[in-house]
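== Folding the chain ==

***
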Amino acid sequence: QQQQQQKQPAFGELSSETAYLQQFSWARRRFSEARIRRDTNSAATAFKSPTFAGGIFMISREWFFKLNGFNPLLETWGGESIEFSIKLWLCGGQIEIVPCSRVGHIFRKQHPFRFPNGSDSQTTYLRNSKIIAESWLDAYKYFFYASKPAAKRIAINSNDTEQSHQLRRALNCQPFSWYLQNVFPQLKLPNDDFIAFGALSSGELCLHISNHATVQLRMTSCFQNDVTHWYLHRQNSQLQASSGACLHVVADVPKRATPLSNATRSTHFRVVLRPCVDQDVGERGHNQKQTPSQRWLRRGGLLVHQQTQLCLDNPLSDVVVVSHCRNAAPSQLFRFAMELQRL
């Protein structure tokens, strides 16, 4: 099998992180020039990290088995190091990265093993992540389900989580809120910034970017692993996709483009994705620069485009449009996985 070696930046530039079990990633750690000059041994100075990669760590045998090691109920591959990181911090330990250490890691182009019951790596990883969420995240598990709605369909039982719950009681482990406050405060909760977030559904279908290259919007099954999640901003009312772009309405006028403010009743409108327009916020929180074509209002279960006063609509199959608002029309009722204000 062909193999490739991946090399990470040297000089202790990296710490590790994970966002509600979505993935493990390396984040660049900033060193100020003043600190480097002051501390000539900074390359050897260990620093704390919220989590670690599972194949490149050292731990005492006694401490490893006191924490019950890697969870045997997590199948095959995926999530073991994330769970171990969380329980290590919550149950009295800590993780340190030593910048001057060097570890070689060989990645294969494909997994050298099979996944259980004919499933694939993504399904297995999602099941493992659900067990971790139910075992360790407490009420914060709902943020995980908001970003990964497909996990709701994956069956687990109480036996999959009981071992972890027993360990938490035996070692008097901290709640997950302690981890957010003391270990990973950079992981900001969306409550203050958003009205709602997560998968955006109408009936059994969710609004999804089906092709990032051509930016195609369509309605698709909410239970596919990579379904797009959306964020309705509290301050500027923008509806932003996880890709970073914003939901935008444009007017289709024959032969020439017409600003929305001059559009006539015969004008047709399309829902598209566009780069989000930044807004400056004044001292009292008022927007100094308006982006009316990207502003959406939440009215009950409706998503109303502020400038045109048209509603997001799923009238047929996988089609998404804007049309005249109709009270309680099923095709215009949309729901976020996490609603942070009463509808």
